[in-house]
Write a structure and sequence with these properties.
The complex is a heterodimer of chains A (about 950) and B (about 160). With about 950 residues, chain A is α+β, with helices and mostly antiparallel strands. Chain A is built from 23 helices and 52 strands. In chain A, helix 4 crosses helix 6, helix 4 packs parallel to helix 10 and helix 17 packs across helix 22. The model of chain A has no long low-confidence stretch (mean pLDDT about 95). Helices cover about 15% and strands about 35% of the residues of chain B. In chain B, a hairpin with a 3-residue loop joins strand 5 and strand 6. Classes of the chains: A alpha+beta (about 950), B alpha+beta (about 160).
């Protein structure tokens, strides 16, 4: 045991102990601990295994940049994978397990892989697993890959809210610069959101301390928070701003204590990024050993958690910031030696070796000693401080550019992002006074800002060199060493983007927070370029891993893809309807609790033999109104509509600009200047948008209006040979004889003092009437019709049976019997293409060579022998080409027709219309059957039933 | 694929009745879509009715809720007998049953609004049309909260969202 808990100090509550296990062993921590601090307090050194070589790894950092301490945490029988031990608060009775190790991190069976390292360089899998084929190895490699274990029993509730908010200023980071920015803006009366991912505000103040205006920083910080809230803003702790998107939208994950976590979408007028900086390692040999840690992290563990990370400590640095760490550790009881690569440093009472570097780390499972030049120094902990990398991720996501600053040995922002500025350590201002000044200015502060001692920070860059020897880790999480970067350079992967993909450097859960800058410098050294010339990889959201549940929010279950509801849903349910999704609506699929197949066949047979009642309310009902309505209707439709007489109906298609059929349906001409477009249920919104788009784009918008009345009307369809008898029996005041109301005409009447529209349209091939009334009257109309149904041998009709009936007639469903290439002539409708001289959407595409390709797939029927089973929908129509099969199309709809007593099918088949009578193979799941290409109209091809 | 069981749509006027959140469907309203010369339409159909933009305070009497540049939903306390069709520069269509108006109130109403829309309610807009929980809707302010108008077929989805606040 090397690290220990001190008897006093820190922000942990020693009166509230917490029990937990790690890799099966029991431990105790305190309320206020992170999992990492509790492990360190218990002397645990090995917390994980490296991704590739399974080398033992200890805790490096104290926050989101931690690359090694990734753990699965089980609580109340449910496991959450891949949590960062450094950011996860300790809780009572949790079970913590290391990842990528078996059975434990301390005794990992796969540790032997490290001995194979010489033959497993970066990219070895690209070269090694080519023969005989990748799939031979894929299973084993996939089994070894990955980190934590997904718990299939962990299904978190969909209760994460997602809030939208706006503010004058969003400040990311509540350290010195962020507090200064927020304070300046709030005191000027602006609405400020101040967010920080820690549980408390203060940033570096919390563990490094500081005095503002000669007083405790806490008093100043509390004053800022009060000012922010008084001005109508928010101070949000435990909140991670993880992404900047278009228009400076910032997304943030708030970890709430008593409520489910929340996602915030914040649209500020201005953003100040004051996210601090991340300490990077020195790239010394074997710098990945357990016991090697960030110097700043050691100070965090000491000050926040009262954990002394080692008793005999060597602090290796190239900058001033590590000196305060060394002094604090000494004061806490550790023996500390400083090794500074510079010739001189700040005044210090501790032993300091200047102009030297760590040349070796001794110890396999834990640091035992280090080599400094010619001598060996026994120690249990090596702290590395290689300088600070500004946390520029959000700035870079917003397309901010970076430049290398030699005096600060850091990539710093160049500015120039509209509405976004960077302040403090995130901008390379590494002293307290500089951070406060920058923050105050970024917040719009005009008078003097908060005052603090000037402070001191100096650094001499210590980057990896091309001839450095030994195994020197640059990316701890992905096991990428300096030699791997050199190999990538030798093989030509000198772009940082290529280096990343070749070696995995900067990938995975830490996204290279500690690795990237050293990697850029290494590649620069290896290729003789400057750091600026070498460039960076692209910064992308999220800054840190975000739970998928938070991103999904409440859009799960019924809210993933919510459905529209029919006005008559309750009546259908009362009649035993089985409700299913069709085209974005919840509709009756069939009625009754019986075997669906039998119920559907019975409904279909009853509709053919007598009469059936079907709810067609979901059909789109979009009105085109105005003096130029006919012109828009014509342009929008493949079929000309301006020649339609008022009171009449015409079926037709609408096309995409590509000539592909987009939708079909009927249009009613309500008046000279008013059309009603009845489109497919699932296409209503899209058709409305198309009409609106073209109304505004091509026509005088003052002379046309588009009104979507779909939800205003409920439509009840009465179909079957006795449909007229049924309606007449209901006493509706409308003439239904064929002369008064012929097929493809409509009439209007009154029903209970409201309008009633009866349209003679058929989707079954039988005599049919569509009765439309305002939705509030639909229940009474349905009740009247349903009451009379039994007297005529009729019944209710669900959508499944309707699908069968329309398929018997060869009536198509767009998207089912058509695909993304189907043009109207593929469906046998050529008139408008041949005859229309005026423009309409899709017209030009119909004259393109592809439209005349003789191998186009065309809609046909497919018949099989009477005793055979229906063809599977989706089965391919194939021909033999040598020993192989080639698909010529596929089955789009297939049913057993109770009316015909045999299977029927529709399909899209190459040149199908010219191949009627040809026998073809139909292939499905390894079996091939025979079918005959037929006319798509299987029932009543003469259309006599329409008038029966 | 397993078929999903969809809960029945909630009916009635009182949709949510909790201590901190209340949602009530307003019944018996007159609703008319108007387009074109909106001022002429208002003068003809509902003289004096104000035309409201985003999150404007809705009066108890007749008012229009602007939809984009050239359309509006005219709300009246009771249905009006307007003749559907085109007039001189404007048109009207009765849609008394097409839209559901839901009044939301209670302590959690502001939070519901924050979840419902990303629109800049403080700055407002000449158009009251926004996405509300992803649905095409109109938003007006009321003395005790806010009112949402969505197509009636989306009412159940709107209530499901509100119920989770």
């Amino acid at each position: 045991m090397t690290s220990v808990r001190l008897p006093t100090g820190g922000a942990v509550d020693r009166g509230r102990p917490l029990a937990f296990t790690f890799d099966g062993k029991p431990y105790l921590g305190f309320t206020g601990d992170s999992i990492a601090s509790a492990l360190l307090a218990n002397g645990v050194r090995i917390v994980g295994r490296s991704f590739k070589y399974h080398r033992p790894r200890g805790i490096w950092a104290a926050w989101t940049e931690e690359p090694n301490a990734i753990v699965d945490v089980a609580r109340d029988g449910k496991t959450i994978p891949n949590l960062r031990a450094t950011t996860e608060p300790l809780a009572n009775d949790i079970t913590v397990r290391s990842v990528n190790a078996a059975p434990t991190a301390a005794a990992d069976r796969a540790a032997l892989i490290d001995r194979l390292a010489p033959v497993l360089p970066a990219g070895f899998y690209y070269k090694t697993f080519l023969w005989p084929r990748w799939e031979t190895f894929e299973g084993s490699i996939r089994a070894m890959a990955g980190l934590g274990r997904v718990d299939p029993n962990n299904r978190p509730p969909a209760d994460n809210p997602q809030f939208n908010a706006r503010c004058d200023l969003l400040v990311v980071g509540a350290g010195p610069a962020g507090l200064a920015a927020a304070g300046a803006a709030a005191r000027a009366g602006r609405i400020v959101f101040l967010i920080d991912d820690h549980a408390e505000i203060g940033g570096q103040f919390v563990h490094r301390g500081g005095a503002i205006e000669g007083g405790d920083w806490r008093n100043w910080a509390r004053g800022v928070a009060r000012a922010v809230e008084a001005a109508g803003g928010r101070v949000m702790a435990r909140t991670t701003a993880y992404g900047v998107y278009d228009g400076n939208l910032v997304c943030a994950w708030e970890r709430r204590m008593a409520e489910p976590d929340a996602l915030w979408r914040i649209r500020p007028q201005k953003i100040v990024i004051a996210a601090g900086a991340i300490e990077r390692p020195l790239i010394v040999p074997d710098n990945d050993r357990p016991g090697v840690m960030s110097a700043d992290a050691a100070l965090v563990y000491l000050k926040r958690y009262a954990v002394l990370v080692g008793k005999r400590v060597v602090v290796a640095t190239n900058n001033d910031s590590a000196y305060a760490v060394a002094e604090a550790l000494t004061e806490a009881g550790a023996q500390v030696e400083l090794v500074d690569s510079r010739a001189s440093g700040p005044a210090c009472s501790l032993p300091v070796t200047h102009g030297a570097a760590i040349e070796g780390v001794i110890g396999n499972r834990s640091v035992e000693a280090v080599r400094i030049g010619e001598r060996t120094r026994d120690c249990d902990t090596l702290l590395l401080s290689g300088g600070w990398s500004p946390t520029v991720h959000l700035y870079a996501q917003a397309r901010g550019r970076l430049r290398y600053d030699e005096t600060r040995a850091a990539l710093v922002p160049t500015g120039g992002v509209e509405g976004l500025s960077v302040a403090g350590a995130a901008n390379g201002a590494f002293t307290l006074a500089d951070a406060l000044r920058e923050g105050h200015a970024a917040g719009g502060g005009e008078v003097a800002g908060p005052n603090a001692a000037a402070g001191q920070y100096a650094i001499q860059a210590t980057w990896p060199k091309a001839d450095d020897q030994g195994r020197r880790w640059i990316d701890f999480q992905n096991d990428v060493t300096l030699k791997d970067v050199a190999l990538a350079a030798r093989e030509g992967y000198i772009s940082l983007e290529h280096l990343k993909r070749y070696t995995m450097l900067g990938m995975a859960t830490d996204q290279g927070k500690t690795a990237n800058v050293n990697a850029i410098a290494a590649m620069a050294a290896l290729t003789g370029r400057t750091i600026d010339e070498t460039g960076t990889t692209t910064y992308r959201p999220p800054f840190a891993p975000i739970p998928m549940g938070v991103i999904a929010g409440r859009r799960r279950g019924a809210l993933v893809n919510p459905l529209r509801r029919l006005p008559l849903e309750a009546a259908h349910r009362a009649d035993g309807a089985q409700m299913r999704e069709y085209g974005g609506w919840l509709r009756p699929a069939w009625y009754g609790p019986h075997d669906p197949e039998r119920a559907i066949e019975r409904e279909a047979a009853r509709a053919r033999d007598a009469v059936a009642l079907f709810d067609g309310s979901s059909l789109g009902k979009i009105e085109i109104i105005g003096p130029d309505a006919a012109a828009l209707a014509d342009f929008h439709s493949y079929n000309r509509l301006s020649t339609l007489k008022p009171g009449r109906i015409r079926y037709g298609f609408v096309l995409q600009e590509t000539g592909v059929v987009f939708d079909d349906g009927v249009t009613l001409r309500l008046a000279e200047d008013r059309f009603l477009v009845s489109c497919s249920s699932g296409h209503t919104d899209a058709v409305r948008v198309r009409l609106e788009l073209w109304r505004q784009d091509r026509f005088d918008a003052r002379r046309i209006a588009i009104h979507d009345t779909t939800a205003q009307w409920a439509t009840l369809i009465v179909t079957g040979p006795r449909s007229r008898d049924l309606i007449e029996a209901c006493g509706l005041d409308v003439a239904l004889d064929d002369q008064s109301l012929p097929h493809m005409a409509f009439a209007t009447a009154m029903f209970e003092r409201g309008p009633l529209r009866i349209a003679r349209v058929s989707f079954t091939g039988d005599r049919s009437y569509e009765l439309s009334v305002p939705a509030s009257r639909a229940g009474r109309l349905r009740a009247r019709l349903a009451e009379k149904l039994p007297a005529f041998g009729g019944g209710l009709l669900g959508l499944e049976a309707l699908m069968m009936l329309r398929a018997e007639k060869g009536f198509i469903v767009i998207g089912k019997d058509t695909d993304g290439t189907t043009m109207p002539h593929d469906l046998g409708v050529t008139g408008p293409r041949d005859l229309r001289a005026d423009e309409y959407i899709g017209k030009r595409a119909l004259s393109m060579p592809v439209a005349g390709d003789p191998r186009r797939k065309q809609l046909v029927g497919l018949s099989v022998a009477g005793g055979d089973a229906p063809l599977p929908t989706g089965a391919h129509v194939v021909i033999r080409e040598g020993r192989a099969r080639r698909s010529q199309g596929y089955v789009t709809s297939s049913y057993f027709s109770p009316s015909l007593g045999r299977p029927i099918a529709l399909g899209l088949i190459e040149a199908g219309l010219s191949r009627i009578g040809e026998t073809v193979g139909v292939y499905h799941l390894g079996a091939e059957r025979r079918a005959t290409i037929a006319n798509p109209v299987a029932l009543d091809p003469e259309g006599k039933r329409l008038h029966a | 694929m397993r078929e999903m069981e969809w809960p029945p749509a909630r009916g009635g006027e009182l949709l949510i009745d909790r201590q901190r959140l209340n949602a009530r469907r307003l019944g018996g309203l007159g609703q008319t879509l108007i387009s074109g010369d909106l001022q002429a339409a208002i003068t003809e159909i509902a003289p004096g009715a104000p035309m409201l933009g985003l999150y404007a305070l809705a009066p108890a009497g007749a008012h229009g809720l602007r939809i984009g540049r050239t359309g509006a939903l005219l709300m009246t306390p009771a249905p009006i007998s307007v003749v559907d069709g085109w007039r001189d520069g404007w048109c009207a269509t009765s849609v008394d049953d097409a839209w559901a108006a839901v009044e939301v109130s209670g302590v959690d109403a502001p939070q519901a609004l924050m979840q419902a829309t990303s629109a800049d309610l403080a700055s407002g807009s000449p158009s009251a049309a926004v996405l509300v929980f992803g649905l095409r809707g109109l938003i007006a302010r009321t003395p005790s909260g806010f009112r949402v108008h969505v197509e009636a077929s989306w009412l159940e989805t709107l209530v499901a969202w509100l119920d989770g606040v």
